[in-house]
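Aim 2, interim progress. The first record below pairs a target sequence with its structure tokens.
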Amino acid sequence: MSRPSDVKSMAGWDYRREARARYLLGRLLADISADECAAELLGEAVRLDPGLIDARVDLGFLLGRGEDYVGMFETFWEAIHADTRALRKALLREPEELEPLWEILRPEPPVRVQAQGDISTEMPAEFRESGALVALAVAHVREGLDEAAAAALRLSLQLDPTNQVALTLLALTCLLIRSRGLQGSETVETERVLRDIDPGLAELLFKSGR
């Protein structure tokens, strides 16, 4: 017969496993743009296991994509206060459990020889550069270099103001800087850039009193 402590341990494990399952399904639905269902599942994962920082981070980005900035701020702020180190580690990370599934759902397309001079299918250079700067910013945030990340994201948005990932990540970076009690020229410059691109987001972020 199991001792009470053993039963509690087993119940806790089942609880976390259920939360993880909902997180993975929510992440999958988010990746195929089924945002409403994805947000519901990610929110359930957070409620089941408040320590599942991956779910909090992905929910924050999903809310940012839907321009629910109030919900995004709440989610990111809670994640920062729950476990900043885990947040940095989880940032835009692909769950290992989904990799085999994506190999089935997204097989590598056959290589197509592009006709000389046919550049219609190429991504504009500024979009590529913007994406590269987001990747650089992610690396900076993971290393705790929030100010450097903010600088890269400002450049990314100047190249592509429609880059919602860059916009959301810049908001998260501002909250990380604020959580460390830092304010300075970087914050002023970030506010200026955000007010040009999304005044509503800038107003909420810099006048929220957080």
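The second target in this work package is listed in the same format:
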Amino acid sequence: MTAAKRQDVIEAGREHVHYLPWGALMSAYAQQRLVLWIMAVALVLSVVGNCLLALFYMRRETWVFVKDNLGNVVQADPESFLRGNGNRDDNEIKGFVLRFCRDAYEFTPLDVRDKARYAFRFVDPKVQGAVSNALRITERAKQIEQGLSVKIDEDIERGRLVELSITRRDPLEVLAVFSRMAVSSTGTANALPPIAVRVTLRLVPRSPYNPNGLVVTDLTTTNS
């Protein structure tokens, strides 16, 4: 087949140059077959391109930035941040509440402000006023004026430990019951009434400044 005849066969709109019907039919068939091959090659290239894009997307490096307590934007661990809403086991939850109670209810005249400030790092800003009432700031100020240091009364050998129990899951709520001791500057220790602390928590993404990913949303205390 010469180049002119090949052009008459495969070029779109050249069917009319054929006098016989079968010639026009063969010309249209050749054109459609050519279009089909072009579409097949384009489809294969599209599938390969989409597979490569998906592979690159799955292997991309995720950057996560958060604000610290000072308002500075810092880079956080993407794995811990993206999986921050995963389940916490009972030991992790109770451990967080135990550390929070130590920071909130243990103090000396020298570190009372620092301890309270650190405890408030894990409190939702919307409820910090209510939480400050539960921390008994007025009572604490009187104890500081008297030069008293307050600590949680624990003795592992005698079985005196902080009692922790998860009372609810939705919302997450933990009850902590413990005794406290008030120690004067001369070393005299006096027992304070036992206290029951009910802590309501919310799960948040983990970060270097909150590795447990827990925030206090409510706090109530009663003398047991």
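The helical segments are 3-10, 21-58, 78-82, 90-105, 112-120, 128-134, 137-145. This observation will shape the mutagenesis plan for the next reporting period.
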